[in-house]
């Protein structure tokens, strides 16, 4: 009987070949998985970058979404800038903008730099040779295109505005790491008395949480900056003493906006007491002028009069005229710069107080209240058009019927003296308004079209 062939070697060879096939197959699958993972990650990063760049701006955000939910998009974008490949270019812009050109010049962080008062103060500081870096979230409480126009104006004067939010701690910390600011002019806030009834959370987020976040970063900075910040005449609330003095009581706010500004003054006291921050609060009285805020009466009165719409003129519940201490923007800017010039250095270092620090509060007003009816009469004359007036009783929405500033203290400490009367200031505003919105050119085109059709 023949011996069966020896197949053991063949079996071993097949097993070995199977092992090799399985091994290479596993390696291929592993390599393919890694490649697929990396490709997926790359595609995801590309999509994130695409949507970041092409995501609709804040002005196009749906109106039913509260502004305090909308305003963080650009903040996140700014934060990504300094952590991404563009960090060097971004830091160069930040340093260049904040470097003073005059001997012993200030290096100032201006929050709310694309706002009304912020843009004017930034220009004034830059023109005298100080370094200025802006910070603004460009939210859409009012038309962001006006803020963008102010930004363009500042850019022409080499003022760079970082697009970000006060509540973005890492961004603020980065700014203070890059620049040893000597001063902060803190003007960013959620403004407006009536809007607080529609969106109260935006006031808490900006005026309280945002202010605390700024102070937290400033207290830890070395050196600590001196801080001048915007309070408001609204803190006088139900006070009946006239004119309003810094010595008058401010514990009866008539609106949530006023309450947040009063809270800011108490918070400032706390950070001054514990951390040695030098803090100066400025109570603004109805600031107006070119590049102003569209939510202010003089601004939308001008718009509505030109468009032939009726305007509401408020009377008090006892049928008295509502009056305001209208303060022209140039006078307020002088007050802000005067406060910065006389602000003493903070006494803390790295969050630890080393001595008593300066704590001040001042009124910045015009000292001559004007009835709102008189404001309308002046505008009628400047616009050569009668207003359609609708006189109504002032609603109980937190507005106060009368404001009048006593500025003796500001005059004594830094020579604050308003020089612009309402007629002169409104004439400058109307001239700017007509130019900015192209009113005269529109009127000419309309009249030419009427003439041609006739």
TrEMBL record:
It is found in: Golgi apparatus, Golgi stack membrane. Its EC number is 5.1.3.6. Gene3D superfamilies: NAD(P)-binding Rossmann-like Domain (3.40.50.720), UDP-galactose 4-epimerase, domain 1 (3.90.25.10). It catalyses: UDP-alpha-D-glucuronate = UDP-alpha-D-galacturonate. The keyword Transmembrane helix applies. It is a multi-pass membrane protein. This is UDP-glucuronate 4-epimerase. It comes from Gossypium gossypioides (Mexican cotton). The lineage of its organism: Eukaryota, Viridiplantae, Streptophyta, Embryophyta, Tracheophyta.
